[in-house]
From TrEMBL:
Lineage of the organism: Eukaryota, Metazoa, Chordata, Craniata, Vertebrata
Gene Ontology annotations of biological process type: regulation of cellular defense response; regulation of complement activation, lectin pathway
A Pfam family that the UniProt record links to this protein: F5_F8_type_C_2
Alphabetical list of Gene3D superfamilies matching this protein: Galactose-binding domain-like
Name of this chain's protein: Fucolectin tachylectin-4 pentraxin-1 domain-containing protein
The UniProt record lists the keyword Transcription: no
Length: 293
């Protein structure tokens, strides 16, 4: 099995921070490849003091972040305890409310510390946020280890479903790369009113599947409630008995929702099925992100 290897994805990216202490403490110095922890050397970023100081790097695209390696400034006044590392895709309030990867403990001055996310976290922005009032936030080097956002492997697959509603509802419409959620534009799949309707994509080879993104039809979005996403290698019960990756609670009409399969689920077939339900199953796009085994 070949899984993506984590690398320092912060190299060559752009950083910013809540404020800049002086001319030799810009945000980009924390990702310049120099881990020297003496501030006077001129290779550390530093904010002004105050409440809610933060530092942020834009990775330019989405990555799965595994861990962050911090070179702590050699300054006994710097209090690291409680500072948070956040990973996500939002820039509201400078990204300081994105999901938490880790909360830092006390770190000895002039040493390095590795903070591991509990699970790989998907995001374009990594923020180091200090909500405490006091000493400036100083970072002598921040190395962010992650893997590339996997490609949409469903685009190369072949789709089928329990039945077809009409000429507009072909199973392959759900993997055409188009998220258009208006069924009458011809880019959504749709079954008849089947008992336990299902849809399946054959990836043709075994893959590690990390997450599945579903785009719901703009009308009657509640019809997708309770749908299960299954991943596996068996076609028993049309593939609907494979491992459950996730269950859909509700996707608003016209919206797309991402469902994570833990650290990855292996399989060739991805099924979406609504067990015990008699009705139509319509999908406007299914994106499967993973890597080949």
């Amino acid at each position: 099995i070949t899984l993506p290897v984590a690398e320092n994805v912060a190299v060559g990216c752009t950083a910013t921070q809540s404020s800049t202490f002086d001319m030799k403490s810009s945000a980009d110095l924390a990702i310049d490849g120099n881990g020297n922890m003496d501030y006077e050397i001129g290779s550390c970023s530093k904010t002004l003091g105050g409440v809610n100081s933060w530092w942020r790097v834009n990775l330019m695209k989405k990555y799965y972040i595994n861990y962050v390696h911090i070179h702590a400034v050699n300054d006994s006044k710097h209090d690291w305890k409680g500072i948070q590392i956040r990973v996500g895709n939002k820039l509201q309030q400078e990204g300081i409310h994105n999901p938490v990867c880790a909360t830092l403990p006390c770190i000895q001055p002039g040493t390095s510390f590795t903070a591991f996310c509990k699970t790989p976290m998907l995001g374009q922005y990594v923020v180091i946020a200090n909500s405490k009032c006091g000493y400036p936030l100083t970072l002598c080097e921040v190395e962010i280890f992650g893997t590339s956002f996997p490609e949409n492997i469903a685009l190369k697959g072949t789709a089928t479903q329990s039945s077809i509603r009409d000429f507009l509802g072909d199973a392959g419409n759900a993997i055409d790369g188009n998220r258009d959620s208006d069924y009458y534009h011809g880019s959504c799949s749709k079954t008849n009113k089947d008992l336990t309707p299902w849809w399946r994509v054959d990836l043709h080879e075994k893959h590690w599947v990390f997450h599945v993104t579903i785009t719901n039809k703009i009308t009657y979005p509640e019809r997708l409630n309770g749908a299960e996403i299954h991943v596996g290698n068996s076609l028993e019960n049309n593939g609907n008995s494979n491992t459950i990756c996730a269950t859909v609670s509700f996707i608003p009409g016209g919206n797309s929702t991402i469902y994570h399969c833990g650290r990855g689920t292996q399989g060739r077939y991805i099924n979406i099925v609504i067990p015990g339900y008699r009705g139509q199953l319509s999908l406007c796009e299914v994106e499967v992100h993973g890597v080949q085994v």
